[in-house]
Design a protein that fits this description.
Radius of gyration: 16 Å
Number of strands: 5
Order of helices and strands: EHHEEEEH
Helix content: 10-25%
CATH class: Alpha Beta
CATH superfamily: Hotdog Thioesterase
Length: about 130
């Protein structure tokens, strides 16, 4: 499954040279992940309230390939790469006009209310597969 989330680079996203500040790519892909999860039918608020499970970022491998600039129209492309009982690895790319500017592998883990690793409910694993 492939999910695309569109965004535009605003002045606040850039440094003095008009180039996207490196940490903002993490914000962009966070928005993409949130919309991806929502689009496949996972309500994270309900997941926490009903199952006591939340997702947390465990690891990010990031490659900054080319700069994005002020006023660029970008796409955050998210795909599931690997899924286990308690974690999911997503590939996320920030793309401008078909050219990959930033690429990351993001490992999310399921945690219980005490912050300990937890199994994802079966229905959630099916949605992420």
């Amino acid at each position: 499954m492939r999910h695309e989330f569109a965004l535009r680079v605003y002045y606040e996203d850039t440094d003095l040279a008009g180039i996207v500040y490196y940490a903002n790519y993490l914000k962009f892909i966070e928005r993409g992940r949130t919309e991806y999860v929502r689009s496949i039918g996972i309500d994270q608020t309900a997941l926490k309230a009903q199952e006591g499970v939340v997702f947390a970022v465990r690891r990010i491998e990031a490659d900054y390939i080319l700069p994005a600039k002020f006023d660029d129209e970008l796409q955050v492309v998210t795909t599931t790469q690997k899924l286990t009982a308690a974690r999911v690895i997503l590939k996320q790319e920030v793309v401008r006009s078909g050219v990959v500017l930033f690429s990351a592998l993001v490992t999310l883990v399921a945690l219980d209310g005490a912050g300990r690793p937890a199994r994802m409910p079966a229905n959630i694993r099916r949605l992420l597969h």
